[in-house]
Amino acid sequence: MNIYDALLKRYENEPFLKRVITSDEKWITYDNQKRKRSWRRDGEPSQAFANPGLTPNKMMLCVWWDWKGIVHHELLPVDQTINSQLYCGQLQRLRQAIERKRPELNNRKDGINHHDNARPHTSLMARQKLCEFGRVVLMHPPYSPDIAPSDYHLFRSLQNSLNGIKLVSQEVCENLLDSVFRKFFTDGIMALPAKWRNIVDNNGAYLV
After folding, report:
1. β-strand 111-114 against 135-137: which pairing, if any?
2. Between vectors from CA 130 to CA 200 and to CA 28, what angle results, nearest 5°?
3. Are the C-beta atoms of 60 and 75 separated by less than 8 Å?
4. 42-50: long-range contacts at Cβ-Cβ below 8 A with a sequence spacing of 24 or more?
5. Bridge-partner residues for 50, per DSSP?
6. Which residue in 103, 89, 93 sits closest to 72, CA to CA?
7. Which CATH class is domain 2-31+53-201?
8. pTM above 0.85, yes or no
């Protein structure tokens, strides 16, 4: 509650949300079942068997976005996950994406990153890289997914878009993500002060 109270007071003195780029990761699964033929006698129906070793596959989606929309996203190779070295490489690519898509933020020394407290995000290597880029990290208490914009806003919208859709390959998954992101509405970050206020007004209780 103290952190959110401090964030509220900071926002009231200096609105800063338009300088925030928030990020998170989410597993995306796809089912590339392949079926094999079987021998049969004349008159008997054919049977197909799924190879259980090929389904499902999963890829990690890494996404950075701000109040205008998606700044950068990556799909990692199948079953690869995040470590500090990879995350620092992603921060370098994010910086290049900011140069292209958010030139008004590129030369500022008061840029803000927001992410959860996963170890690759908070490692010394990652903190040094962010400092090198002149970006600070917005405070975020642990175990607070309902206040992380990616969890309560972006990933919820993404999951709704994925419901009922069978992804059969990485290419299909990438095309769907591109389509979802093009339609994405970007009011998640600007809703943060109201969520902070709810927590402060309710003595630290999280309200869905």
Report:
1. parallel
2. 75
3. yes
4. none
5. 35
6. 93
7. alpha beta
8. no
**Looking at residue 48, what is its pLDDT?**
54
Domain ranges of the chain: 2-31+53-201
CA–CA separation, 68 vs 189, rounded Å?
9
CA dihedral 62, 67, 70, 76 (to 10 degrees): 0
Cα angle vertex 190, ends 189, 193, to 5°?
100
Tokens at 95, concatenated: 């910086």
pLDDT at 64: 95
- Confidence at residue 132, expressed as pLDDT on a 0 to 100 scale: 92
CA separation for the pair 204, 99 (Å, rounded): 38
Q: What is the mean pLDDT of the chain?
A: 83
More confident residue, 144 or 111: 111
Write out pLDDT tens, residues 68-102. 889 999 999 887 889 999 999 999 999 999 999 99
